Automatic annotation (TrEMBL):
It comes from the Eukaryota. It comes from Dissostichus mawsoni. The lineage of its organism: Eukaryota, Metazoa, Chordata, Craniata, Vertebrata. Keywords: Disulfide bond, Glycoprotein, Immunoglobulin domain, Membrane, Signal, Transmembrane, Transmembrane helix. This is Immunoglobulin V-set domain-containing protein. Residues 147-156 have a biased composition (Polar residues). Its main location: membrane. Residues 160-170 have a biased composition (Basic and acidic residues). Residues 145-170 are annotated as: Disordered. Pfam families: V-set. Residues 14-99 form the Immunoglobulin V-set domain. Gene3D superfamilies: Immunoglobulins (2.60.40.10). The chain crosses the membrane at residues 108-135. One of its GO terms (biological process) is cardiac muscle cell action potential involved in contraction.
Length: 170
């Protein structure tokens, strides 16, 4: 996702006037739960001015404003997350920062990685089942070979070799 203030990097305003802090965003893969917030850097102390979440593209954000002279004027239909500062004073001089967190790309990456891990686990399970099946089949073959030896039931001993002695002479 790309966030832009256009060509505006410094603003100058008259005391008592209203100033637009412009900002637009663009995303080539769409957005879902885009969180953003505006802060004012007051000599190293960050003061949150407003924050919002845009649930999906085209749906207006749920905005919370924390400063009485700040107004959110953006619209998700125009990919605009700009704010107005009303009745500017000398104390408003400083750096204004927009932070955004778009979880769409993170969600896509996690989904792909999760899918790959899932396929790997499935492959290992299939391999284990095939090996287990082959080992059991091999054991059955060994059992068949053992039990198919010469059997001498004539003398009452199973598995004993028959002696080929001639018939007894009387």
């Amino acid at each position: 996702m790309e966030v832009s203030t256009g060509k505006v990097s410094h603003l100058f305003a008259l005391n008592g006037s209203t100033v637009l802090l412009p900002c637009t965003y663009a995303s080539c893969i769409g957005i879902k739960n885009l969180y953003f917030n505006w802060h004012y850097n007051n000599n190293g102390s960050m003061i949150k001015l407003c924050e919002a979440v845009i649930p999906v593209e085209g749906i207006e954000p749920r905005v919370s404003v924390y400063h009485e002279r700040v107004e959110f004027v953006g619209t998700s239909k125009g990919n605009n997350i700009s704010i107005l500062l009303w009745n500017i004073t000398f104390e408003d001089d400083g750096e204004y920062i927009l932070k955004d967190v778009d979880t769409t790309l993170t969600t896509i990456i996690v989904s792909v990685v999760g899918g790959v891990i899932g396929l790997s686990i499935l492959g290992m399970v299939i391999k284990a089942l095939v090996i287990n099946f082959l080992l059991k089949d091999d054991e059955k073959n060994k059992e068949c070979l053992v039990s198919s030896g010469n059997d001498n039931t004539e003398n009452g001993h199973s598995g004993a070799k028959a002696d080929n002695k001639g018939t007894p002479k009387a």
